[in-house]
Amino acid sequence: MSFAKFMIKKSINQIQAESESGELKRSLSAANLVSLGIGCIIGAGIFVMTGQAAAEHAGPAIIISFILAGLCCAFAGLCYAELASMLPVSGSAYSYAYASLGEIFAWIMGWLLLLEYGLAASTVAVGWSGYVVSFLGNFGIVIPEYLTKSTIVLNESKEMIFTNQFNLPAMLGVAMMSVLLIFGVKESASFNNVIVFIKVAVILLFIAVGAFYVNPDNWHPFIPEAVPGGDDKYGWGGIFRAAGIIFFAYVGFEAVSTAAQEAKNPQRDIPIGILGSLVICTIIYMAVAAVLTGIVPYTTLAVPDPIAVAVDAIHLPWLSFIVKIGAIAGLTSVMMVLLYGQTRIFYTMSKDGLIPPVFSKIHPKFKTPWINTILVGVIVSVAAGMTPISILGDLVSLGTLAAFCIICFSVFYLRRTAPEMKRPFSVPYPKVTPWLGILCCGYLMWGLKGMLLTLKFYFVIGILIYIFYGYRNSKIRNSAKALNEIINREA
Fold it and tell me: H-helix or E-strand containing 251?
């Protein structure tokens, strides 16, 4: 079997025609899309992982880590914006790879996006569970510990141990968001707008109030001295390592592109949604990191709720209460947007025949892929209940970085093979920007090399599924085969 058989492409004209099919309702404005992006980006990264990355790797220089991670995302975001303006379909990076590199790369992209969206939703659900349990504890409601911990735990040697516990609140959180998404994207977007306003207001309140309690001594040394043999503990190695960890905090800005088929004016609004949400969140992250490490010593932040720890340190119980509410609201909206993105990617893959048709079955009343949403909800909730946040977070970052590399290369490839195509949004310095994106993402991936072996096994499983199902059921491949048979008979 020739490898060229795996490289069949979906024509760009065909993808653009599919975007006008009208099966999904166009109801999202540019403001909705910016809100969607912010809703997905601001979540577990800022509420949970910022403190851990600062305490274990970067110290106060976590601010530099945010700049590095944000710059990496900016290169990829520009590439996403160009592709989304050209190909306004719900499949996001999957569809872009199908048009530029071919079916096998499209499948790989779709498989990687399961890590980026599906497992990211699981990761956020675990963080959401932690804040909910803490919040309920303030009212004397105590959930048994065996119902709030993951089934898999890591010992001091980083070996996995299976227990008889599971994270019930995380599973219930995913279930609630799945039900909401079944009822409709417009209703979900309206809910998201409210939640985004609440959590951004809470974060801005934390920045405004916390700035008055900053002790500049906590910022010294700004870059802590590297610990020899300390697994990138502090120093510049720690800053780059922290950038890879908090890269998770940016996961989701490209989720805006999955809404292209439901956007009112995708060619204009998708780039606004992607870049607008990315810029706003980067500024917010840097401000939060500065205040957080200025209020308390960075060594005290290796906890699930670092912002709450900082607020408690300045003895403002009312602000601590509000912060927990904001964290719960923020993580809730992130769960919803990630689940939304995953279901739309599966919807498009199903329409192409690469996964079973049940994933593209639309509810007659709500006009949403309801069975798809239920199945994704089950998978995500099980992962959230069983897996610790450290494993989930690293896998999400790896999958996302690999997907970003493919996206950046797709822009370069289409510039070479289809230079005449109309590009409503154009990447600045197109000969340089995509390669900068690839180099930055590749470097951050290497920093997470401890999980690369797991990614390889995941990659092999995905290829096997494609060979035994996707390749045989691909609609574009079967259509081309049928056309060739007709031509041969007539000849």
Answer: none
The CA dihedral of 161, 162, 165, 168, to the nearest 10 degrees, is 100
CA angle 276, 47, 114 (to 5 degrees): 70
Pairing of strands 152-154, 160-162: antiparallel
Distances (CA, A) of 105 to 249, 443, 464: 26, 21, 14
Domain boundaries, given as residue ranges, for the chain:
27-490
**Topology given in CATH for the domain delimited by 27-490:** Amino acid/polyamine transporter I (1.20.1740)
The C-alpha atoms of residue 139 and residue 321 are separated, in whole angstroms, by 11
- Band (pLDDT 50/70/90 cuts) for residue 297 is very high
- pLDDT over threshold 80, residue 232: no
- pLDDT of the residue at 92: 65
Q: How far apart are CA 79 and CA 283, in angstroms?
A: 21
In the chain, the amino acid numbered 55 is A
**Other CB atoms within 10 Å distance of the CB of residue 190:** 14
Q: What is the pLDDT of residue 379?
A: 94
Its sign, for the CA torsion 114, 345, 438, 41, is: negative
Query: Any idea what the Cα angle at residue 91 is, between residues 275 and 184, rounded to 5°?
Result: 90
* 179, two tokens: 């039900």
- Tokens read off for 278: 């990315």
**Residue reference for tokens 């090399």:** 449
Phi first, then psi: give them for residue 202, nearest 5 degrees. -65, -45
Helical axes 317-351 vs 185-210, angle rounded to 10° = 150
Q: Is the pTM of this model over 0.70?
A: yes
Q: In whole angstroms, what is the distance from residue 69 CA to residue 65 CA?
A: 6
Note the Cα 82 to chain centre separation in Å.
Answer: 19
Q: Which of 313, 248, 268, 319 is nearest to 43 (CA)?
A: 248
pLDDT of residue 294: 94
Question: Maximum Cα–Cα distance for the chain, whole Å?
Answer: 85
Q: Which of 270-279, 315-324, 465-474 is the most confident on average?
A: 465-474
